[in-house]
Amino acid sequence: MQxxxxxxxxxKIIVFIGLEGWSKKGGQGDYIRELSDAMSEAGHSVIVxxxxxxxxxxxxxxxxxxxxxxxxxxxxxxxxPFNIFHNRIGKVHYLRFKDPHDILYPIIYxxxxxxxxxxxxxxxxxxxxxxxxRIPMHIIGALGISPDIxxxxxxxxxxGPAYMEIxxxxxxxxxxxxxxxxxxxxxHNIAYQxxxxxxxxxxxxxxxxxxxxxxFPPDGLFIGVYDHGYVYEVDAFGIxxxxxxxxxxxxxxxxxWGDVPGYGGRHNxxxxxxxxxxxxxxxxxxxxxxxxRDDLGFGLSWVxxxxxxxxxxxxxxxxxxxxxxxPEDLGELTETVNAKKNIKFxxxxxxxxxxxxxxxxxxxxxxxxxxxxxxxxxEDCFGHIDDxxxxxLVVCAVSRFVRQKGYSILFEHLDYNYELDIRYNxxxxxxxxxxxxxxxNRLQLIxxxxxxxxxxxxxxxxxxxxxxxxxxRVALICKFDPALANQIRAGSNIFFMPSQYxxxxxxxxxxxxxxxxCVLTYTGGLVDFIEAGGTYPEFVAAxxxxxVPWTLKRTGQDFxxxxxxxxxxxxxxxxxxxxxxxxxxxxxxxxxxRVPEYIYIYDSAMLRNDAIRNP
Length: 615
What we know:
single chain, alpha/beta, 18 helices, alpha-1,4-glucan glucosyltransferase (ADP-glucose donor) activity
């Protein structure tokens, strides 16, 4: 295939592998899309390998792509066929692999259950992770290219570095292409690991059983048959095709708590990738430190500490595509909400002398936009935002609501505090709603997001109750719209981000670029953001321990203090508020600042690989 050209001298061929990229549902999608664009603009040849999902979700294009070839991928003791499609977006080549049976990869991050397990934890999720980890090497083999770097992302690609070191780097059909290729693994969220038992259960009538017949011989398919023959227990690690002893190898293998009674054969997909990658990349300096803590390493802190001691972990604070979020160019900031009343969004820049006036215009437009949306979509939009007082402080949150994001702290009961006017056993949300500025100014809350776990569903249910308790002051939008998300950030005064832990942090950066100051916790990538001047230090709350209840009360008090300070400055010192807004908007966040740091890590990965091969 000739569409992948050899780069100029000193440039690299880089292959990104991840579940997201073409489709997007989380931060990994932005990361892969934007970093691949930045690398290609810097002169490198870039390929992104993603699954071809049956149902699109925030896809980068609606085009199907050009069919290139078919790959018969080794899985278990057989093969699974995949069709490879090519699209070029800008200078980046996207290669997606499609299951011709339409059984695998129905949609990115399905939220349904299979035989009692969440889809990602089921046999489906496991087979998909095996295929995503292994197929890049076969695509590369068919293309006949020799990449400098294979860049794997998160647990769904965790077997990739292991496949490289155990099979492909030395395989006679691939050695000429991959022997000198460096492997790196970015950990976007170490809490998600692909932790798997020896056996995975599936109903005999499930469509995936048709695929299993292709990858196991009749006598090697199951390790158990239950419920009168209607439920099979499938040998999970046997699907990988990797030597069995790695399943039970703790140091350097996939074993994870397999010596605990009842957990025999338990293994961890992400752990295997962390053990075998030439280099590991943390998405911030704060994340680099957090992953080494026992409470935030989620059982893998010892692996991270080991690799860090060996000098094999680097960190690069996430960037954002500044052009895609610059308020001077956003198309959604030209929308007219109500022509008769001349209510509309306006574009603005950090150098505008009247920036606060333009932000006020956007606040009024946001209120009208949200209220109109609630009237038109009462099934998933709730509440109302009063527009009688322009100087009320509008606080927003845009998030996929999961436990990690920390919004349950709104309903934490706090200790009495006279100085902060916190009543005994008062919830944080109620304490915030009672805060007043010098002219009676209040907080208003606009929240947009969808639940990602049980905790998120519970939180959104409680926020829905707040829309009734505090009529005119709370609005909830239970869906995600990227354009509306930018309007919410642009029209708000404060972006609220109470993360329990935050590896990188994208939403806070987007808010800052749009001139919306952040109230957040001191954790992970938010530490990098704070140190870079992304928000005012007095708007920062102490981080709370993951699973440590007493710290929630301390952090809750910090948030009351932060919001009281924010409302005070906003109402009483517009000059200072404008200075803070302009400072936040000029934070250096563009990916062009990050590319040299990634190239340094890529070079280190290639050198590490050479050192291992030639000790």
